[in-house]
Amino acid sequence: MIDIQGITKSFGSLQVLKGIDLHIDKGEVVSIVGPSGAGKTTLLQIIGTLDKPDAGTVHIDGIDVTTLSQKKLSDFRNQHIGFVFQFHQLLPEFTAIENIMIPAFIAGKSHAEAKQRAQELLEFMGLTDRASHKPAELSGGEKQRIAVARALVNNPAVILADEPSGSLDSKNKAELHQLFFDLRDRYGQTFVIVTHDESLAAITDRTIHLRDGLIEMPEAIPSPIPEQEPVQEEEIETADPSIETEDPSTQL
């Protein structure tokens, strides 16, 4: 579903990505972890078409997004990619349902179609009664779930999330993490999540470790050497010195 080959990216003399190869299947929930400066957010932005690599290709649903014009890139991003950030980025003057509907309007969908999809997502997330509330009237967890619904409104191929639970308390964090898997189970949704949260990385289908602009390959665990049976020393029969032997010279 997502196929990345030979991605490099530099900012001035600093090479941030040094040749990234990665494949992500449809319906996978994948986390990307690593120390600060490893290139996690840069890689996510390149996958999301927010930045271009210096070299390499990114295919999403069979389309090489690195070859698209700016206009086609904007349309592709709106229709095929959803974004969730650490802070919800909801527009304060609009209600929850209006915030969810905005990407659908940009995609050219009718008001009725956008509203129906937004209501479906609100119901799935248990936020139907918060539809007419503005962001200032919502809790932190509710705002982030509205942001996830907004990312899903156009049925994108993939959701890209950058530290999505970084600003939440432990209860809302756990609920948001579970929501990702519920959405995968319900809609077959693919998630690529940059996180420092070890508890989230531990439950994803696969964890990609980045360090110094490269994907760290897990160290191979050597196969145990089979235990060998101890070598039995061959028993050598010795004559019992207490038994006298006949002198052959007497046997005449």
Question: Can you walk me through this structure?
Answer:
By secondary structure, the protein is of the alpha/beta class. Helices cover 32% and strands 22% of the residues. The protein has 7 helices and 10 strands. α3 (96-106) crosses α4, α3 packs parallel to α5 (140-152) and α5 (140-152) runs parallel beside α6 (170-187). The N and C termini lie far apart (100 Å).
Would you kindly provide a brief summary of this structure?
With 252 residues, this protein is α/β, with parallel strands linked by helices. Helix content is 32%, strand content 22%.
Structural class: alpha/beta
**Distance separating the two termini:** 100 Å
Low-confidence stretches: none
Q: How many helical stretches? A: 7
Radius of gyration: 31 Å
Average residue-wise pLDDT = 87
| Percent in strands | 15-25%
Key attributes of the depicted protein:
252 residues; 4-stranded antiparallel β-sheet; 10 strands; alpha/beta
Helices and strands, with pairings:
Layout: E1 2-11, E2 14-24, E3 29-33, H1 40-47, E4 55-60, E5 63-64, H2 70-80, E6 81-84, H3 96-106, H4 111-124, H5 140-152, E7 158-162, H6 170-187, E8 190-194, H7 198-203, E9 206-211, E10 214-215
Parallel strand pairs: 3-8, 3-9, 6-7, 7-8
Antiparallel strand pairs: 1-2, 1-4, 4-5, 9-10
Helix pairs in contact: 3-4, 3-5, 5-6
